[in-house]
């Protein structure tokens, strides 16, 4: 949803810049120029990252994990700079940013902790992956905002998939070079119901509650003045917009404009619970986990190609309309002398 506001927000930012004296150097001028430069090289950057990521993922898990962390930090910095200029920084309090940041923390500091591993796996495969469909993400390489959202929602599930099933995916020579002290794949197996409930239900739910508490204290209370300001956009705006068009959300929360903050967290929690069975099946079955990822990747590509086709069709229609208008205008000009002669 945030990406769909990209053009409008950038136009507003440009208007604010143009209202300033041309010889003055302002923050808005700088952010506007940086955003334009990002968009100029979006396709090149996206193709390069995609090529390197797929190569490392298929050949060297160790290098893939380091490159994943580097690119994720890079994407977060891109988002911060772009959304600072657009006044969208409030989006960075959302769960997906919280989750992907903790995934990097887990990889660097706690790779041998089974409890944290299961928690990270569940939300990466569940809540964050489902967001691809909920927010209609697109793997559109020509758009910085679209490809950033696709990366932040899709790469966590791919990363934990590669770690969970590494012994089936990679040869011993690759695994011996792994510098991350992960829990052995055999020890990752969960056989008892008690352990399953603890690791795959209770712990991830506690993590979500921790984010919700942070969200209420920092976002709802600390940033309340920014939430009330229409110049600043946040996840609440997307929630209200989605609720107006989605019958599911309407049935779940009713009118989104009343008690919006409470209803937003409520639908967030329900989404978290609904996505958990997908995580549980993925954790126990390699085939399901793999097919699940393929479905998400196809969705991203299909969405991007559909949108690209619509954009091309719109440009073609505009050119045809312009050409017809020009031809009509030319005919009118040519026919004027003839009409005058007939009248005389």
Entry summary:
With 344 residues, the protein is mostly helical.
Textual characterization of the structure:
The protein is mainly α. The chain has one domain (3-343). It contains 17 helices and no strands. Helix 2 packs across helix 4 (61-86) and helix 6 (114-125) crosses helix 16. It is globular and about 90 Å long. The chain starts with 5 loop residues before the first helix and ends with a helix.
Pick out its properties:
mainly alpha, 344 residues, 0% strand, single chain
Briefly note the structural class of the backbone: mainly alpha
Q: What does the overall shape look like?
A: globular
- How much of the residues is beta strand, in percent? under 5%
Distance between the first and last residues' Cα: 62 Å
Order of helices and strands: HHHHHHHHHHHHHHHHH
Quick one: biggest sheet? none
Number of helices: 17
Query: What gyration radius follows from the Cα positions, in whole Å?
Result: 25 Å
Give the fraction of residues assigned to helices: over 70%
Can you lay out the helices and strands and say which pair or pack?
Layout: H1 6-19, H2 27-40, H3 42-59, H4 61-86, H5 95-109, H6 114-125, H7 127-134, H8 144-164, H9 166-169, H10 172-176, H11 185-188, H12 193-222, H13 224-228, H14 235-245, H15 247-253, H16 260-284, H17 286-343
Helix pairs in contact: 2-4, 3-4, 4-5, 4-8, 5-6, 6-7, 6-8, 6-12, 6-16, 7-8, 8-17, 12-16, 14-15, 16-17
